[in-house]
Amino acid sequence: MAYGPHTPADRQRMLSALGMTSVDELFADIPESLRSSPLRLDPPEPEQSLMARLGGLAARNRVDLASFLGAGAYRHFSPPMVDQILLRGEWYTAYTPYQPEVSQGTLQSIYEYESLIAELVGLDVVSASHYDGAAATAEAALMTCRATGRGRVLVSRAVHPHYRQVLRTYVDGAGLDVDEIPLVVAGPAGGTTDLEELARMLADADHPVAGVILAQPSFYGLLEPMAQASRRSHDAGALFVAVVEPVSLAVLAPPGGYGADIAAGEGQSLGIPPQYGGPYLGILACTEPLLRQLPGRLVGMTTDVDGKRAYVMTLQAREQHIRREKAASNICTNQTLLALAASVWLAALGPHGLRDVAAMGAAKAAELEAALAAIGVPRVHAGAYLNEFAIRVPNAAAVHRELLSRGVLAGLVVAEVVPDEPSLGDALLVCTTEITTSDEIIAFARELAGVVATLAAGVPAAEAVGAPA
Amino acid sequence: MVPKDLRYTKDHEWVKIDGDVATIGVTDYAANQLGDVVFVDLPAVGKTVDQFATFGVVESVKAVSDLYAPVAGEITDVNTELGAKPELVNSDPFGEGWMIRVKVADADQLAGLLDAAGYEQLTAEG
Amino acid sequence: MSASGPRLQPSLFELSRPGRRQDKVPHPPADALDRIPGEHRRAGPAGLPEVNEPEAVRHFVNLSQLNHAIDTGFYPLGSCTMKWNPKVNEWAARLPGFAQLHPLVPDAVAQGTLQLLWELEQILIEISGMPAVTLQPAAGAHGELTGILMVREYHESRGDMNRTDVLVPDSAHGTNPATATMAGLRTVSIKAAKDGGIDLDAFRAALGPQTAAVMITNPSTMGLFESRIGDLVEAVHAVGALAYMDGANLNAILGRFKPGEAGFDVMHINTHKTFSTPHGGGGPGAGPVAVGEKLEPFLPAPRVLREPDGTFRLERVGERPTSIGRMRSFVGSTGVLVRAYAYLRTHGASGLAEITDDAVLAANYLKDRLADSGAYDIPFPGVCKHEFIASAMSIKKSTGVRTLDIAKRLLDHGFHAPTVYFPLTVDEAMLIEPTETESIETLDAFADALIEIAREAASDPETVKGAPHSAPVRRLDEAGAARNPNLRWRVAAGDWTPCPD
């Protein structure tokens, strides 16, 4: 067996010590009627063959495209020092720090992660992380209900569709209500959250609101009126939740600055590779008064009996292993290794490097916008954005497919992920980061111009495989 | 030996009666079971509580316990000292570790509680 | 380990010096942010530490050396299955074809990963004996919630709106009742029978039209196979409820027991337990969920589908309206699943059966070594599965030394402590799970250490009570940490240089 150390002699010795001759005797307590059929699986695969086959599988994915795809997962440069640290077995093969005396590495790394995120979001209390941005957002919503005693949550339609879906799953599970705040349809604020509608929804005295959730930047890349939304929420006795993109916080006003009570978000952009969806890093932070409502692990600083500074998981009475059915959440793990990855990445870049990453993404985005406008493809919306925006492209799905065959991953076909936003029925959501090159931008614009011209000339678009049902 | 002038619940709360005011806390047995108390979640003054309903929560490092009201009534006073010094529950559970005061709604409810001897017996069996 | 041993480290923030920087990325144009309206701009830079590469790397390398890890030594943690984390798995997950793939790319350019995920589902289908699997949940607890939400949806889809209860044995892991609460259900805890197994009569009495599901861990959290499980599942189905199996202890039954064949309707799997994906200090893990036919329509979306032409795709938005919806963004913790896949392919059918055989053999060997020594109480001395309980009740009575102290003293011997004070139903419990990847030499050394500590408890209890003595730090003031929480480093204004903005 691949990793088991027992020789036949070892097994013999153990069986003899037990007064047995066959390991089957140790399974005699399984009743006949419950004994299973044998496992019908392939035979064991030696490492060399396994590696060849895995390499072959990986090669069937294409990661060489000129990519303009963001939509909640972002590619950033990761300095090699980060992964080399993450490959240390003391980090990735360590267990949850239940015995703090032999886990100070993990514990201090989590404390540092909490501190780094606290600086970025401008809120005092940061949990040791959740599964992903969507789960963190859902937990934030449940927090607002617990804290206010109210049962209704409002979420903007400009929040990531996956997050809204997960929110619905969690909130329905808990017997609470979630309503979506519509977007402004047209004009300079088109595509952003409709504050008048928000005010109307907050004014419904029969259904008081526990929490209001907006994203900054929004799923569509636009900058939202967070301060105003925060104020209106508080005026109605509701809490305000900001869903944030952490790299953008190097240059954008943090949630603590505009009165958010809770911040949630996806930490994948902090140097964690996209990995086809996970594992990712759910960020959750709150103000001091909400501390006891915060689900998940917390690491705090303390001292040992000799007075040495030390770190320990604290306020565990909130968690499932103690509260059991009264726990705020059933969460048992956090994403420690990814929190470490984020911390090392932030240490590698520093505040100036992080700012440069965010600013370079913005610069590339302006370059992209200009290149696309020059070929007659404008943005859908007029409002300010950081590094992601929607463009209007007739036959978006067909265009996207054609561009793919020419080596360009032209962002996201919005209608395939948000089929119920008619204003974006023919739109692509495109994104740039510091690793987007000018050559890629030029190629995107050139190929897009070519594809649009071909379609306009009446050449039929490719069959609609993969169009929304 | 627990104080003889108090009454007790089987969930380890004690109650001291002074006229129609009941002072309530948890016993030293409870404090020992919990270990170092780190937080006491107490209700607001003015709230009413039913007999044997929960009025709060006491947390230690490794455990958490609901607090049950020995008698019903309106909460007239809450020990705010416990906010900064939850350890009073361990160091002086029958004195400075008191938790709430209640205006007793029905004096007959006291009859259903344990006296000191009854409580001693309960904890000896425990 | 550095020549002088592991050393405590200052915080990353204390290493920061204004002006210390690393030039990792090119500088953007000076006007890059001019178009961002002032009201959206950050007033000052975030107070992140300014460190250089040598300082940063030394910090994280030195910190790592303060950790016990599987790569440094034994972790006999019951219920956690701390088996070896294979190195080829790390290589596999880091292949750029897997690691750099964006989760929203068109299916046509993700065929390698989609095939891997589909094949992984097939393997888990065979292991579980159930017809369908979701790979979406990000952890075991997440899988539990997924499973229970599907159970609720199943009942509601049949117009059965009064299924409010989830029954669990009182030895259940804390996530089980917490999960029920998150799904809006009430937990009913059923006391175990005297032999530690489920009390069938007590369960039968509690089962009724209000029961949504029963959640059972098998083997139980005491390491015992639930031989009455067949009767229980029958009784559960007879009242129209569903049977959920907590798959945390799957390591004990590979190739010997398939929950689906025994009638279970749903089971979650912890890849970071049974299938070796690394714990990473507390995460990430993954919690695939296997389901029977009744629950298949409700699986989270999107599922991975295989087309008749042999290609793979994800379900489209809205393609399967019966789904409970999404439990997370994107498809799943694919990076973790790649590791689990590599592990499962490495072992194959015979390897997996061998894992269970060796894990159970090792646990029984260790249990008998301790039982024979008389040093500890063994509440369930008969044949166990992959883990067993030892108790320090007698030691506590005669010496005052508790399980907590014994656990800390084990650290001085270079072992991580076992799981302590769980399950809640046994006093002064230690739940010990050696797994199949520890040598007999390690097992013997661990037994010897435990026996020596028991002797020391009698002859020199103060040393045991004061342990650990040789760890990087000694016992911590946990009460102080909870009473006056210090949860973040405070950065003073002026601790960093302004950005050249």
How would you portray this structure in words?
The complex is a heterotrimer of chains A (about 475), B (about 130) and C (about 500). Chain A is of the alpha/beta class and about 475 residues long. Chain A is built from 14 helices and 14 strands. In chain A, a hairpin with a 5-residue loop joins strand 9 and strand 10. In chain A, helix 8 runs parallel beside helix 9. Chain A is globular and about 85 Å long. Chain A starts with 7 loop residues before the first helix and ends in a 13-residue tail after the last helix. The C terminus of chain A is likely disordered. Chain B is α+β, with helices and mostly antiparallel strands. Chain B contains four helices and nine strands; from the N terminus they run βββαβββββααβα. Chain B has a six-stranded antiparallel beta sheet with strand order 1-2-3-9-8-5. A three-stranded antiparallel beta sheet of chain B has the order 4-6-7. Chain C is of the alpha/beta class. Chain C has three domains: about 55 residues, no CATH class; about 250 residues, Aspartate Aminotransferase, domain 2, CATH 3.40.640; about 130 residues, Aspartate Aminotransferase, domain 1 (Alpha-Beta Complex). Chain C has 14 helices and twelve strands. The longest helix of chain C has about 40 residues. Classes of the chains: A alpha/beta (about 475), B alpha+beta (about 130), C alpha/beta (about 500). Chains A and C meet through helix 1, helix 2, helix 3, helix 4 and helix 5 of A and helix 1, helix 2, helix 3, helix 4 and helix 5 of C.
